[in-house]
User: Fold this.
Amino acid sequence: MDFLKHLYEGPGILTFLIAFPLLGALAAWLVGDRSARATALVVGIVELLVSVPLFFTFDPTGTCPQSVIGRQNEGLPFAFSQLTVPFQNCTDAPWFADWGIHFRIGLDGISLFMVLLTTLLLPLMVLGSWTYIRDRQRTFYAMLLALTAGVVGVFVALDMFVFYVFWELVLIPMYFLIGVWGGKERVYAAVKFFLYTAAGSLLMLVAILYVYFRVHSVTGMSSFSYFDFMNPLAAFSAREEALLFLAFALAFAVKVPIFPFHTWLPHAHVQAPTAGSVILAGVLLKMGTYGFIRFAVPFFPDAAHAPGAVKWAMVLGVIGIIYAAMVAAVQPNAKKLVAYTSVAHLGFVILGIFAYNLIGLQGALMVMIGHGLSTPMLFFLLGMLYERRHSYEIEDFGGLAASIPVFATMLVFAAMASIGLPGTSGFVSEFLVLLGTFKTHPYVALLASTGVIFAAYYMLPMVQKVAFNALRSPANRDIPDLDRRELAILLPLVVLILWIGIYPKPFLDRMEPAALRLLATQSTRLAPPMQPMGDVAAAAPNP
Amino acid sequence: MIILFWFFAVLAVSSALLTVTRKNPVASAIWLIATFFCLAAIYTLLGAFFIGIIQILVYAGAIMILFIFVIMLLNLGNDYEPDIRGHVWKVVAGGTSLVIAALLARAFSGELPAPLGHVAGPASLAAQTADRGTVGVIAIPLYTDYMVPLQFTAVLLLAAVVGAVVLAKRKV
Amino acid sequence: MSFFAALGRPEVLDLARQTHYFWALLPEIVLTLGAMLVLIVDVIHKGDRSEPSRGSIPVLTLAVLAATALANTALFGLRDVSANGMVAVDGFRTFTNFVYLVAAALCIAISMGYLERRGIMKGEFHALVLFATLGMMLMGGSRDLIMTFIGLEVMSVPIYVLVGFDRMDPRSSEASLKYFLLGAFSSGFFLYGIALVFGAVGSTNLTYIAETLGTGTDHGHERLLMAGMALTLVGLGFKVAAIPFHMWTPDAYDGAPTPVTALMSTGVKAAAFAAFVRIFAVAFADAGAQWVPVVWWLAAVTMVGANLVALTQGSVKRMLAYSSIAHAGYLLVALLSGGDTGKAAFLFYILAYTVMTAGAFGIVIANSRDGEERVTLEDYAGLGLEKPWLGAAFSIFLLSLAGFPLTAGFLGKLYILRAAVEGGQAQLAVILVLASLVSYFYYLRVIVVMYMRPARSEGWHAGAGLPLAARTAVLAACVVVVAMFFAGAVPMRWAEQSALSLWRQPAPVAASPAPASLFR
Assistant:
């Protein structure tokens, strides 16, 4: 046990979580089409098993040392060459040391859940693709595993260069997943997805470089470190800060996607294979909101807190919630409907982030988790349906409750979780967001709360048309119900949704210190948050 | 001296113009010879007798004869089509030439002091000519300071010969 | 390098003594002798029969290149104390020499099999490639405008011939003629520029020009010098294929045998750029006020224009031609950025660019058949699915050209961006990023076609592939492209040191580095 404890306090575990799927991707590709899926499943399960203890060993107050700009160059003794930062399991290995690029990764209460969500969905996606993907299996599973590695990397990166690399690394496999294994209009959807996201991220790259040079010019040291990017010395003019914030925000807004940058999402979702939709909705979209929480807002607090920015974010968030709900209500295609619900849910996240209080931020994080469980479940269910009937059109179904009752039960449950019925994760999280928003922007909260009603308005008719109504089509009569593999996919999600819905305390406890710290960082504009640099410099003996 | 220079200069430029405007390639070649002669005269006026003679021998003599041979052998000169078609391109070409001409005019219009080089200038040239003779002024730097470029010119010729053979020989 | 010291290499060269040129020019001498050897061996093989050359000729050629690379290592750590040597003895030259050698080796490697298929397997091809490489080394390593010009010609003449090497193919001959005429034209510009610069400054020695321009603020030859710089710029602009001097590029690249295209877009460009750096960023550095705005516009127009035109290309080979024009624009940004970072970024990028472009052309060759080039986009449909290795390699090269993370191209672009921002060229950096965004589209389109469209017909890609040696070379290029991202710090440091050494010519003493002004 000691060994395990040591392992989970040490730095290697995150690197393992990134490297293992990459090696797994290589292995899956090399073993060939026949055993690729089995290999991927083993990799996925191992990845999940390795990551789960993180939840229990996670120490909300944990810290770890990180080298901070210049310290290592001043000839200070080791103890003084580092500062502690509120992250754990940190790795800090020089990569392009001359440029201040280090392989810096670490985990805090926010990234923890994103990482766990990713590792949870990985084996489920492999199972979900078990019979769905028939062509070029080895490439498919290799791409899926590489994608997972990239996503985990995004959530733990603490170096802007490393972050950007992982951010872009996610693009390529996702692009192939949609473009090669997607539906009829897959090429269009894939290219649209790629170009939208690439355009956003290039702007972000320019902004990253800009900040990098500014930090370089004020401190004389090169560093891409997350903490150095918040160096209080590198003050920007209001205009600069607004533009930089905009560059970051645009990259993340495309990914979230915030209205009006959402147009790539329905295409991508509808055309992508089940596993693609699952990871897209489950974690890829969260990369955008995570970016806001972790980078855009703390880096440029003045711009992010400016009344104009908050107003726009709130307005776009509410528009996203209501507009997406209305569009979803008229969709004949069930998958497109679910895609639009993602836009609506992430609108809540935006509200929670820009409410700038603890409840709002925690709510936003909880929506991210809850949505990452309920929407993948819906996509899995639709994928199972598609495998049986080769259709996503709502019209083609009806009365499935009679022919495949287990499926119908699951569908109803997932829909309820998505709407936010009390007792499911959706309720807790959206309630928190609305509460947080109400504190600062009561009218916005009022408007947004109608979104919950809208959710029932689009989701329930869909469930009714698919699962209940009359069993008209004979094709719907003779289809097999869910088998054990499919239940194995769904049940973990059901359990987690209920757990969060009924007893969210373990989750909230783990994210609270991190959320508080982020808010404190913004309001005081101090970096790094725990210990001001001056103290350490003063304590250091001058050689 | 000045009058002579301008005489040959104007002659050189006008025959160069005639070279490129003649429709008959043979006529072009003849005008080119005239240009070379004028240049040779200018070199001579500058005191570079050796280069003047070489200019006539090599260019006007050897190379032009080759040109004319080739032209005659290929029996060109009957079908003619302008290279620059369309008014737009004519305007573009004309404009470009005007700009270049204007730039050159600007470059040369100012007073021209002696070059800055450490050993350059008419006085130093005269001194060196007296010392080494007109051939020596060229030959001695050529085989000392510029030895390396000279050697690689030989390589250039070798490469050119190989290339010419590859392109022209019927069977390689 | 005690090996060369044991052979009698002096520690410090003084090129005022002719004998020291032997050491300063060792790689060039080895290469010249090797090229002649290839010619002679080929003749001995063939006698007076007309038949394809033997398979040992390319192997011999590669051996010559390897020997040259070995000789090139003799230049490590060497410096020259003379005032007016003909060749530069610095790390910059050593670095770029390796780049040319890599380009030539990749060209020879991917030509294996291709030449036989097109019926142009002749030893002269290999000899001419070696001569062209020699020209690149002379041009990029010269310290005298005369020498630059000779190098330019030694490089260009074999390339003119190589472009038209397939005499049976009218497109090849047409491309050759076009390239020859425009190339001769640009050489004329360049030479006239040299003459005017000589007239203005009184010397063709680059170090001397730099010193003169650095000391004398008013030497009364401003306009003459300007005209000379302008004409030199035009001449070099042609060779690096910057817009608006790019007219010959698409046709020449498209018509030339593909290995030659690879060499033209890598080695030739690298050499022209190295000369560009030496002439403009070193010799004319203090006249920057005159040429920087012009080159600024050249860079901007090249990046934007080339990427936009590349969007409309239906042929992959032509698309790569325009992409190489676009990359000339990126390299111009590095050149304009000035400072040591700019030079280092240039060196790093040219190395990455050479490897990835040559590799990409290797895939174009793999997709060609007997007497059929197969370069349209449609011809690539389904390639990634039927030939996973070829598809994966091509994807990596294209992504690297686009500047995507995990490839050398990304790091190279980042390096240039960094240099540009540090050198006060932030606007160019923004243009570069936007141009790259446009380039994503057309590089991506090839990947789309390779993976997301079915092949033209069943078994369309059956014959696609390369002989073992060429496959190894392409694979190695692929590995290098990826490795240069992960272990990029090594070539980066090498590039930095090489760029630093460029400025200490002739090395005075271990003085502190020059102050960080814009161009020094």
Remarks:
- Chains A and B do not touch (no CB pair under 8 Å).
- Residues 104 and 137 of chain A are 34 Å apart (CA to CA).
